[in-house]
Design brief:
single chain, 10 helices, 3-stranded parallel beta sheet, about 45% helix, 9 strands, globular, binds 3-phosphoglyceric acid
């Protein structure tokens, strides 16, 4: 199955910040055990590439993404490590062009109509809506669906999503998946609270299975 189809199937993209690469395996085991085989590891820490490399070698069924990709060199390192998709907070044409050259699925970030149209002109059709809550949340998505609903463009809203508001995003027809850190919060990972991470992940997956 193609990358975007797999993301749209699970509908949940955990946004992970790992300070220590050796925490990658227990976290992956926890997510997989909860039924989630998608994971975005952000290039905000020095451990990101090594963590992706370890997981891609050990868990071929895990769909691994590299997050917070701000420049092409990070993308190259992510691809070499085994990432299958890349996510960025913004729409950087250099990064999009590099992703297309490298053949990796790219999800650039947008928060305005002009950025959506720019992304479409670059042949990006699955977009991170970031920062979702701060940029208008579900009401903003509904507004986007007016002029862009018929285009087939899909969003992965991320930023400020949590158990109390995740369902309202998942109900929107333009939402391929929701992203966020709520089930993999840094403090939960630091505390190695795999039980809580597993529970939050199962709850998110259950919400994602809910039909509007
Ligand atoms: C991101 O990088 O996508 C966001 O930092 C995740 O947002 P959240 O922490 O509010 O879920």
């Amino acid at each position: 199955m193609a990358v975007f189809e797999r993301i749209a199937e699970k509908r949940i993209v955990p946004v992970v910040v790992l300070d220590h690469e050796e925490l990658a395996e227990p976290l992956a085991e926890t997510l997989l055990g909860a039924g989630l085989d998608v994971m975005e590891i952000t290039f905000r820490t020095a451990a990101a590439a090594a963590a992706i490399h370890r997981l891609s070698a050990q868990y071929p069924d895990l769909l691994l993404g590299a997050g917070t990709i701000l420049e092409p060199d990070q993308l190259r390192r992510a691809v070499e490590a085994g990432a299958r998709f890349a996510v960025a907070p913004g729409l950087n044409e250099c990064v999009v062009a590099a992703a297309q050259e490298m053949g990796i699925a790219m999800v650039p970030g947008v928060m305005t109509p002009s950025e959506i149209e720019k992304a479409m002109s670059l042949e990006c059709f699955t977009l991170k809506f970031f920062p979702a809550e701060q940029a208008g949340g579900v009401a903003m998505l509904k507004a986007f669906e007016g002029p862009y609903g018929h285009t087939g463009i899909k969003f992965i809203p991320t930023g400020g999503i949590h158990p109390a508001n995740m369902r309202s995003y998942l109900e929107r027809p333009s939402v391929a998946a929701i992203g966020g850190s709520w089930m993999v919060e840094k403090k939960l990972i630091a505390a190695r609270d795999w039980g809580r991470i597993g529970q939050l992940t199962r709850e998110a997956l259950a919400a994602a299975g809910m039909k509007p």
